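Sequence, please.
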C-alpha cells in the first residue's frame, strides 16, 4: 500500500496505527504468553527462564516494529535529507533493557512479568551480547545510533552481520584462549530478515570498454557474484516514537552465479560455492589496530559498502529522478577508513551505471562524504596493496587511479613540483608494496574530516595530515566523542538514575544531559552525599558478588575498587598498572606491621581482550594472573590488596563493572589515545579518574577541574624528548619491580623476559619508566582522598555533574548541524 499524496488519509492512518499494541499489564502478559505458545512453541504452562526471555523479547520487538514502520513511513512522506552512517563495527551489547527503557515501558513490563511469576532482571540476564566489534570505535557507533534515534534524526546505520562476533576470552592457567562467539546460535529476536532486500555484489573479473550510443563506457564483468541480504535491527529513541534502523548485511549465494555452475554440470561444486558466499560475513577481524592486507577483509569491506550504496541509491531513486538533488538528500558518514571504498563505489555507480559523466559524479561525491578518523599514528592507517585491489575490484582500482591523477594534477597547480610533498599526499603509495592509502582517498573526497577529541583533531592537523590541512584547512573539524547516558546510567545504574532524578526534581536530564550540572549545587550536601555513597555501595556489592563467582576471590566492600577495563594494548599501559600493583605489594610486605593500619585497602580490577596474534598483550594478561595468584594467596596482606582479572570483558560486563568502580585508570602514553570513551562512562557513574593528559581526558579536566581527578605523567609535547633519553630515566622503584618479575618472583621467568625487555630493554617506547614516579604520586593522592569519604564523595558527585559534555547527544547534534546538514524529523505523537 502506498501513501499517495492524500495527506488527510495519511494523517488518519498515522492516528490509527498509533497504539496498535497496548502496554497495560494484562495486554503485555497476553502478548508474552502468545509468544511462548506460538513463537517459541512451548506450552504456556511449561517454559523456562530462557524461553520466557525469548517470548518477552519478541513482544518488545513487536512494539519496536510498529514504531519503526511509523518512523519510516513518516520519513518517506517528509523526505528530509538523511544521514547514512557507515561503520564496519557495532558493539550493541544486550537490547532488552535498553529497548523497554527507551520505549518508556520498563515498569509496565516488570509488573506484567511479576504477575506471571518472573522477574524482569532475571530474564534480562538471559540475553547474550551482540558483539559485532572490537572496542571503543564499535561501542561509539552503538552510542551514536542511540543518540540519532533519540534526537529524531533521519538516520540509518549500515554494517555487517557477522555470524561470529568478537571472540570469547577464556582464561586457562592465566593464559588467554579465544573461542568463537557463535552468537546467533539461539536465534536473534531483534532482527528482521528482509528476504526481498537483496543486492548482488560483484568481485574479480575484468573490465571491458564498450560503446554505448557512440560513447565509450566501462563494463565490469565479474568473476564472482554474492548476494547481500538485509537484516534490520530497530534502534528506539528515548522519549520519542522515532525508531531508526541499523541495517546489517549478510552474504548469501547468488542464483546468477549458481546457474552458470549448474550448467557446466558441476553440481557438487556449485553447492560448495553457495557456502563460500556465506563466508564473507562470517567472522569479525579481532584486531583493532594492525591491518594485514587480507583478501577476506577487503572482500568484507566492499561487500558491505556495495550493498549499502545500492540500497541508498534505490531509496533516493524512489522519490527523485535527478541526481543533482542527491547531495540535498543524502549525507554519508565514513566511520574510519574501513568503509572508504564507498567513494570509489559511488563513482562507479554514477559514472558506469547512471552515466552522469566523471566531473558531475565527482562533484556529487565530494558533497556527500564526510570522514571520521580514529587513528593516531601513521601505522594505524589502512593501506591496501594495489595488486590485491586490482584483482578483487579491477574497476575500482581504475577509478582510484583516475581520482588520484586528477587530484595530483590539481595539487601540482597549487603547490608546484614539490615531489616529496606530492608523493606524501598521493593516494597511491609507491614502495616495495605499492598500495592505496585509504585515508588519503577519504580526505580527498570528503567535505569534512574530523578527529575524535580536541587533542586528536589538533594532532591530525599538525602531524598525520599536515599536508592536507595546509591545502584544505576548512575541511578539518573536531567532534569529541560521547557516550549515551541512556545505556550508561539509566540502563546500567538504575539506583543512580533514580537518585539523580530525585535531586534534580526531573527526569529531563535523560534527554538533556547538560542538566546534570544542577548536581553541583548539592555536591557538599551531606544528605546527597549519604545517598550517593549508598548507591555506590550497592553497586560495589553487585560487582563483588560477580568477582567472587568468576574468580573465587572474596573482596572487601570497604576497599577502593580500582578498575582498568579496556582492550589490552601496550600504549594503554596495563603493564604500568600491574607494575604499580607489584610496587604496592612490595611496600606492604616491607612495612612495619603497625604502619599497615594506614594503608587504604584496594581491590585492583583489570579486564580486557588481547588481539589473538598480539604476543606482548597476551603476556600482560598472564602477568596479571601470575601477580594476582601471589597477592591473593598471601594471607599476610589479606584485604589490604587484591588483584582480579575479569575475563571476557564486553558490554554487559561493563554495565556491571562501571557503576561499581571507585577509581578508574586511563593511563595511555600521552599522544596515543585518540579519545577514549570508557572514561566518560566511568565519569557519568561518579567514578574518579586517574589519568594521563591524553585524548578526551584533557577535555574532562576542562569540565570538572584538575582538582577532581588524579593526573600524572608526561604531556604530549614532552614525549619525543623523553623517548630519545630512553632508559636513564628509569627510576629505582620501577627497576626494582621489573627485577622481581625477571627473577621469577611470580614464576614464568623466561616467559616474561620479552615483556620486561619492552620496559628496561633500552627503548621503553611507552615511557613506563619515566612516568613511574609520577604515577605512584597520583596513586598516593587517590589513597589520601579515599581516606576522607566526604571529600571523595564530593569529587564523585562533581565528576558525574560535569559529564554532560561527554554525551553522544552532544556529539551527534554537532555532526548533524556542522557536518551532515540534517534536521530532526520527529514522528508526530507523544512518544
Ligand atoms: O576509537 C575510539 C577512540 O575512543 C579510541 O581512542 C581509539 O583507539 C578507537 C581498526 C580501530 N581507533 N581505531 C580503532 C578499530 C577497529 C579496527 O579494525 C581500528 N579504534 C579506535 C572511538 O573514537
Amino acid at each position: 500500500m502506498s501513501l499517495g499524496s492524500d495527506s488527510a488519509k495519511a494523517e488518519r492512518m498515522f492516528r490509527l496505527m498509533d497504539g496498535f499494541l497496548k502496554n497495560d499489564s494484562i495486554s503485555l502478559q497476553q502478548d508474552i504468553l502468545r509468544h511462548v505458545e506460538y513463537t517459541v512453541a512451548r506450552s504456556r504452562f511449561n517454559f523456562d527462564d530462557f524461553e520466557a526471555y525469548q517470548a518477552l523479547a519478541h513482544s518488545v520487538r513487536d512494539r519496536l516494529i510498529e514504531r519503526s514502520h511509523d518512523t519510516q513511513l513518516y520519513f518517506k512522506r517528509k523526505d528530509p535529507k538523511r544521514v547514512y552512517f557507515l561503520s564496519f563495527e557495532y558493539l550493541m551489547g544486550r537490547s532488552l533493557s535498553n529497548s523497554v527503557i527507551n520505549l518508556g515501558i520498563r515498569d509496565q513490563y516488570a509488573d506484567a512479568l511479576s504477575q506471571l511469576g518472573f522477574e524482569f532482571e532475571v530474564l534480562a540476564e538471559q540475553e547474550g551480547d551482540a558483539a559485532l566489534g572490537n572496542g571503543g570505535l564499535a561501542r561509539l557507533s552503538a552510542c551514536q545510533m542511540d543518540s540519532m534515534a533519540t534526537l529524531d534524526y533521519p538516520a540509518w546505520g549500515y554494517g555487517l552481520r557477522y555470524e561470529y562476533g568478537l571472540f570469547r576470552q577464556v582464561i586457562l592457567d592465566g593464559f588467554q584462549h579465544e573461542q568463537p562467539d557463535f552468537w546467533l546460535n539461539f536465534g536473534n529476536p531483534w532482527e528482521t530478515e528482509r528476504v526481498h532486500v537483496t543486492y548482488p555484489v560483484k568481485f574479480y573479473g575484468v573490465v571491458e570498454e564498450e560503446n554505448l550510443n557512440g560513447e565509450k563506457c566501462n563494463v565490469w564483468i565479474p568473476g564472482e557474484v554474492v548476494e547481500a541480504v538485509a537484516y534490520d535491527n530497530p534502534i528506539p529513541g528515548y522519549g520519542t516514537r522515532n525508531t531508526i534502523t541499523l541495517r546489517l548485511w549478510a552474504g548469501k549465494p547468488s542464483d546468477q552465479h549458481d546457474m552458470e555452475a549448474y550448467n557446466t554440470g558441476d553440481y557438487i561444486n556449485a553447492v560448495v560455492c553457495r557456502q563460500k558466499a556465506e563466508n564473507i560475513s562470517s567472522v569479525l577481524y579481532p584486531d583493532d589496530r594492525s591491518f594485514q592486507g587480507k583478501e577476506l577483509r577487503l572482500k568484507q569491506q566492499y561487500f558491505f559498502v556495495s550493498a549499502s550504496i545500492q540500497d541508498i541509491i534505490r531509496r533516493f531513486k524512489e522519490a527523485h529522478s535527478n541526481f543533482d538533488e542527491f547531495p540535498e538528500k543524502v549525507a554519508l558518514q565514513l566511520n574510519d577508513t574501513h568503509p572508504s571504498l564507498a567513494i570509489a563505489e559511488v563513482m562507479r555507480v554514477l559514472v558506469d551505471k547512471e552515466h552522469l559523466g566523471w566531473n558531475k559524479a565527482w562533484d556529487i561525491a565530494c558533497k556527500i562524504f564526510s570522514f571520521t578518523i580514529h587513528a593516531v599514528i601513521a601505522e594505524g592507517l589502512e593501506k591496501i596493496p594495489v595488486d590485491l585491489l586490482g584483482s578483487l575490484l579491477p574497476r575500482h582500482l581504475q577509478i582510484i587511479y583516475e581520482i588520484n591523477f586528477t587530484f595530483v594534477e590539481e595539487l601540482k597547480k597549487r603547490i608546484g613540483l614539490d615531489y616529496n610533498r606530492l608523493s606524501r599526499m598521493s593516494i597511491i603509495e609507491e614502495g616495495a608494496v605499492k598500495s592505496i592509502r585509504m585515508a588519503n582517498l577519504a580526505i580527498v573526497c570528503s567535505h569534512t574530516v574530523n578527529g575524535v577529541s580536541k587533542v586528536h583533531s589538533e594532532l591530525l592537523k599538525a602531524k598525520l595530515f599536515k599536508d592536507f590541512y595546509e591545502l584544505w584547512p576548512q575541511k578539518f573539524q573536531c567532534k569529541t566523542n560521547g557516550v549515551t547516558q541512556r545505556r550508561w546510567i539509566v540502563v546500567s545504574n538504575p539506583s543512580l538514575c533514580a537518585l539523580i532524578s530525585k535531586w534534580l526534581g526531573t527526569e529531563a536530564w535523560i534527554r538533556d544531559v547538560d542538566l546534570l550540572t544542577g548536581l553541583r549545587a548539592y555536591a557538599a550536601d551531606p544528605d546527597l552525599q549519604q545517598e550517593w555513597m549508598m548507591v555506590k555501595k550497592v553497586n560495589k556489592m553487585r560487582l563483588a558478588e560477580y568477582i567472587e563467582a568468576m574468580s573465587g576471590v572474596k573482596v572487601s566492600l570497604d576497599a577502593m575498587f580500582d578498575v582498568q577495563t579496556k582492550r589490552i594494548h601496550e600504549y594503554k599501559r596495563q603493564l604500568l598498572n600491574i607494575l604499580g600493583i607489584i610496587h604496592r605489594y612490595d611496600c606492604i610486605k616491607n612495612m612495619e606491621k603497625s604502619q599497615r593500619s594506614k594503608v587504604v585497602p584496594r581491590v585492583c580490577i583489570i579486564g580486557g581482550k588481547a588481539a589473538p596474534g598480539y604476543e606482548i598483550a597476551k603476556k600482560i594478561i598472564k602477568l596479571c594472573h601470575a601477580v594476582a595468584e601471589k597477592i591473593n594467596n598471601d594471607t599476610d596482606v589479606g584485604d589490604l590488596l587484591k588483584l582480579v582479572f575479569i575475563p571476557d570483558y564486553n558490554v554487559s560486563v561493563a554495565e556491571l563493572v562501571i557503576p561499581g568502580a571507585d577509581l578508574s585508570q586511563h593511563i595511555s602514553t600521552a599522544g596515543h589515545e585518540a579519545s577514549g570513551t570508557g572514561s566518560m562512562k566511568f565519569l557519568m557513574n561518579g567514578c574518579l579518574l586517574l589519568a594521563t593528559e591524553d585524548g578526551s581526558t584533557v577535555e574532562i579536566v576542562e569540565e570538572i577541574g584538575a582538582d577532581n581527578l588524579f593526573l600524572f605523567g608526561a604531556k604530549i609535547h614532552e614525549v619525543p624528548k623523553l623517548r630519545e633519553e630512553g632508559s636513564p630515566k628509569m627510576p629505582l622503584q620501577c627497576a626494582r619491580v621489573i627485577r622481581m618479575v625477571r627473577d621469577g618472583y611470580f614464576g614464568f621467568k623466561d616467559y616474561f623476559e620479552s615483556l620486561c625487555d619492552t620496559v628496561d630493554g633500552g627503548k621503553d617506547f611507552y615511557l613506563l619508566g619515566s612516568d613511574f614516579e609520577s604515577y605512584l604520586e597520583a596513586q598516593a593522592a587517590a589513597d589520601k582522598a579515599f581516606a576522607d569519604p566526604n571529600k571523595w564523595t564530593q569529587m564523585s558527585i562533581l565528576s558525574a555533574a560535569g559529564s554532560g559534555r561527554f554525551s553522544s547527544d552532544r556529539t551527534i547534534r554537532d555532526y548533524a548541524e556542522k557536518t551532515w546538514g540534517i534536521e530532526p524529523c520527529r514522528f508526530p505523537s507523544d512518544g
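The mean pLDDT is 95.
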